[in-house]
Amino acid sequence: MTAFDATEVRRPGAAASSAEGSAARGPGGCGDRRAARRLVVALSLSAFAEWGGASAILPLLPVYLRRHGSSVPLVGLTMGAFFLAAVAVQYPLGRLSDRIGRRTIQVAGLVTYAVATVLFFFFSAPLATLAFRAVQGVGTGVVDVANAATIGEVVPRRAQGRAFGALYGMQTVGMAIGPLLGGLAGLGGMRWLFLGAAGAVLAAAAPIAAFVPGGRRAEATPDQPRLPLWRNRSVLGVVVAFVAVGIITGMYEVCWSLLLVLRGATPWEIGLSWTLFALPFAVVSLPAGWLVDRLDRRHLVVVALAGTGGFAAAYPFVHSVAWLIGLGGAEAVITAAGWPAQSAQLAHSVPSRDIGRAQGAAATAQTAAIAVAATVSGALFGVAPGLPFLLSSGAVALGLGVLTVIWRGVSGRGPAMTAGQVTSRSTTGTPGSWRTD
Questions:
Q1: HSE-up of 344 (CA within 13 Å, CB side)?
Q2: Which regions of 119-207 does DSSP assign to beta strands (E)?
Q3: Of 425, 433, 4, 19, which Cα lies nearest the Cα of 218?
Q4: Residue 302: CB partners within 8 Å, gap ≥ 6?
Q5: d(CA 54, CA 175)
Q6: 363 class by beta-carbon count within 10 Å (0-12 exposed, 13-18 middle, 19+ buried)
Q7: Cα–Cα distance for residue pair 178/194, rounded to 1 Å
Q8: Gap between the Cα atoms of 14 and 32, Å rounded
Q9: What is the distance between the alpha carbons of residues 281 and 279, in angstroms, rounded to a whole number?
Q10: Ramachandran bin of 9, using left for φ above 0, alpha for ψ from -120 to 50, beta for the remaining angles
Q11: What is the pLDDT of residues 204-248, one digit of tens each?
């Protein structure tokens, strides 16, 4: 089920760096390390509150929608609307964050999500909930892009695995607590749970407002042209990995709780299943981030994808609720390094001035995959409960095959490249020219 050693933190009004290869993210940077640590802690605490509130409503939301008049296909469409809306905004707002700064985007996204969640308290009609879920997607989608871009901008690349591990670890701690509380509240308490979730997401804006610098990013200099992302094979590989994870995630959004209900699980057991996936993931995230900084990131991504695809293929054949919950925890341990490895690889692939654009592009591809998978999974589950699990597992296997071709000769280790080196790699196109070791 598929979540510092720092350099100069740019403050509002600070002079922009004139070169992408400067100490802004270089391994030899000697800027304000404590300020950057505080920023990573602030992002992690914000992610904990955001994901804790958002995930509290998630496990029972498909069942809640069914009980308030939505058909199974409409449940899938409603869950998919969250991601379809995010697709429309992630890339343009990721680019915008490169220009105006991350903080405005992050706070506005959190407020948008909270307002949409409050509306669930007052309205439960199928079409209304579909619209509210779409607005939630707009809010949370841009926050995730801006959070990742902030880490990619501030933290030196040799330590980004640990930074992303901390961010995703705290996200999954929130995911561990939120679903458990949601399961205890049950379907009868869902309306009040919406209000609690909105309050938690609003609270997530406080550390962002306090510690994330505002202001514009540095403008590109004339000798550093902005290159198309599709010419960067490292970025393309990350996009493929993001899409594969997105397909699995979208399927789980709709089908995991429905499968547990089919197997006879109670609401609290459904919430517990999400918690017992999130807790091992959170515990493993920090050491996984350490591995990302020391091992080949490509290998960690491949292992994580193979693990999640294998578990997805196995779940339909498991009829015990206890075994389903236990296997979910095992999957979390195997796949925990995948998220920070993907994000660190992406941050290593582009100059700092393009991080928001790259994160937005990859997140858009992943969110589109989630949206499509969530939209069709409900109908597939109605045909045969195991069908969406098996098809999504096959899609991951296909993605792994494509990934091995795209990433052949691309480095998964080593320090960042300057903009000039990125230009050299992109124009030659030969496998050896992509190595960064």
A1: 38
A2: none
A3: 19
A4: 400, 403, 404
A5: 8
A6: buried
A7: 12
A8: 13
A9: 5
A10: beta
A11: 888 888 888 765 544 444 444 556 666 788 888 899 999 999 999
